[in-house]
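Reviewer 2 asked us to include a model.

Predict the structure of this chain.
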Amino acid sequence: MRGKKGEKHSAPDDPPRRRANKQRGHGTYATDRPPVVGTVGRHSGQVRLRVVKRTDAQTLRRQVQTFTHAEADVNTDDWVGYTKLERKHVVVCHQLKEWARDDDGDGVREVHVNTMEGIWTGVRNFLRPFRGVHKRHLAGYIASCEFNFNLKRITPDFVTALVRLH
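Predicted model (structure tokens):
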């Protein structure tokens, strides 16, 4: 029997392939874990997803400024990259096991990031059948996924546009 659990690998220069990149924390493009940043409008429902090199404050600020209105309230988790957003900014602190919060006392927990968390689940489900996507092609797959989220229904105008492209 080959590859029994606990046996040493015979070629130390050629270690066995590990499934996925199981490193903890946020990835970067350089470490082959390209981050995808996203925004979703609570009223419009429009989703914007982008593959980026890293999730530093400058990158996240550019994403928020590009895809939100200046008067928008921005809800995020407690990732340090969100600290310098130039919008009205409310934070849900996951480190303190906080997932949603009612700030105005009306019984509705309006401060949450559950909408975006649900979209990340949809992105993973969209990518799962491809069984791994090279980082060079990831932006195209993410663009297709974004398109699917934003297409609420197929209209005759949409079909006409597709036929014209083909």
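The mean pLDDT is 84. The radius of gyration is 20 Å. We have added this to the supplementary material.
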